Amino acid sequence: MELTYETIRKNDEVNTYITQADESLVALGYTEHSFAHVTRVAETAMYILRTLGYPERTVELAGIAGYLHDIGNLVNRVDHSQSGAVMAFRILRELEMPPAEVAAIVTAIGNHDEGTGMAVNPVAAALILADKTDVRRSRVRQQDPENFDIHDRVNYSVKKSIVKINEERTIIKLKLTVESRYGSVMDYFEIFMNRMIMCRKAAEKLGLQFKLIINEQQLI
After folding, report:
1. pLDDT digit string (tens) for 22-80?
2. Are 84 and 25 in contact (CB under 8 A)?
C-alpha cells in the first residue's frame, strides 16, 4: 500500500516530533511552526503541483514533504532542514516507502531553508513556495504588541494571505493584505527579501513567474 499524506498526518511518531519541535521554538521565541503551519505548507505545496498538472503521486510526495519539513527543529533550529531530512529518511524507510520517493522528499526537506536550499526538483520548489509564503497573524504567539519583535510585527500585520496560480498557469502570486499600524512594507522586505528571492527561483523551476502583491500593489 502506498504511503500517503493522510497516512503521515495520522502517524503518532511524526506528530510527537512536530509537537516537541514546536515546543523548542516556543522556548526560543519563534512564531508558530506546529500543525497549522505544516498542514498549510503541505496543502499549498499540493495545490501548486496539482494545479500545474503534475502526477497525483508527485502531489502526494509534496504533501508528505510539507508535513515533515520542520521536524528537524526537534534537534536544533540551526541546520534544521538537514537534520529534518535525515529524520524523514529514517521514518519513511521504516514505513517501507520506495527509495526513489524517499529521495524526492528528503531532497526537498534538505533544501527548503534559505541560505542553504535550492529548488532542485519540483517537490522542493513547491515546498519552498509553500513554506516561505506562510505569513499570517495567527502565527504570532506573543499577545502584547508592545513586546513584538520584527517577525511578530510582520506576521501580525498580515490580515489576509493568499497563494494563487493564474488560469494560464504562468504566474504564482502571493497576495497580502497588510495592516501597516503593526508592521510596514519595509519591515516585510527587511526580513523576507531572501525568502522572496528563493520563491522567485522556485517558481522559475516550475515554469512560473513569482509576483508579490501587498495591498493590491505589485512589489515583485
Report:
1. 999 989 888 889 999 999 999 999 999 999 999 999 999 999 999 999 999 999 999 99
2. no
Pairing of strands 171-178, 158-165: antiparallel
Q: How far is CA 92 from CA 18, 58, 85, 190, in A?
A: 15, 15, 10, 37
* Nearest 10 degrees: Cα torsion 24, 27, 32, 38: 0
Phi-psi region of 166 (alpha: psi -120 to 50; beta: other; left: phi over 0): beta
Look up cell 502565527; give the residue.
Answer: 139
- d(CA 65, CA 38) in angstroms, rounded, equals 9
pTM of the model: 0.94
C-alpha cell at 200: 522567485
Residue with cell 511578530: 152
- DSSP result, 132-189: HT---GGG-----GGG--HHHHHHHHEEEEEEEE-TTS-EEEEEEEE-TTT--HHHHH
